[in-house]
Predict the structure.
Amino acid sequence: MTDPVASARPRFTSQLPGLLPRLVVAAGLTGYLLWKAHPRAVAEAAVGADWRLIAIAVALVLVDRSLMAYRWLALLCTVDRDRRPPFSALMRVFFVSTFVGTFLPMSVGSDAVRSYSLTRFNVGGGEAVASVLMDRMLGVASILLMALVGLSLVRELATNTGVLVAMAVAAVACVVTIALIFSERAAEFAVGLVSRLPGAPIRHAGSRVLESVRRYSAYPGPLVNVLACSLGVQTLRVVQAYYIGRGLGMDVPLVTYFAFIPIILLIMLLPVTFNGIGTAQAAFVWLFARTGTPDAVSFALSVLFVALGIVGNLPGGILYLIGGIDGRRIGAERASSP
């Protein structure tokens, strides 16, 4: 069978013209902020960190990854039990796709690899894409809800254009998704749009995804459950940032992180750079300057926070090396051995 990672390469190549500007923005923005914060000062802040506190943040990453895996499993409620892949296979697909997505742009990242891999276990393409789409959108909804709490704590940010744009984009995406699930009129409008797509295969695939998304209207309980889990994930990310900050010597209360981190995560979702690199550094430096934190320390916090996500993806890398994306490499090796 085709390796989903290999199948993503042509799409990645076709998107290079649109990706290059984002890479330039990411590199330029990061480089400028590093220069402004002074590289030596950033290095001194990182080297002088209390790594025992940062180790706590690393441990919390394992918890939030487990919670993320659980919420995706909960969203497979629309797949008939007799067609649902084994638990071990789903865990491998989740963690490996998350690792692979580290090296791919957001548009063809872990979501695409996870969807494709799931179809290799007798799950329909529409169901696979819908499960990943709902997982993503409920995650965005949880960040939006926590960002609203953040704005209530730091109300002057409510007039900032960048923050308002990030929240508006997230809100529109969430409202559209809710409408597609629960509104017959919105579903009919979406069907009309899908029918105008070029090419019969694309129209057929769009119809299957739309039908699978609509199926979640019969499962409000799992949706609420996943939203609650998503809020738990975002809470863990806030606490992770807090312990990294403590490790860097920042004397900033936890409530400030609850105000800032969800807004930073929303800004990182804006498709203006590569995987939020650059925008993350800008948002950390800009927001934590309000607390009197030196730019060098805020920049170091931003780098370690992004790196923490990469560390959380490493278990998937180990699974990929020893068994491929779905573990079938192990089976093939055993079958070929004398």
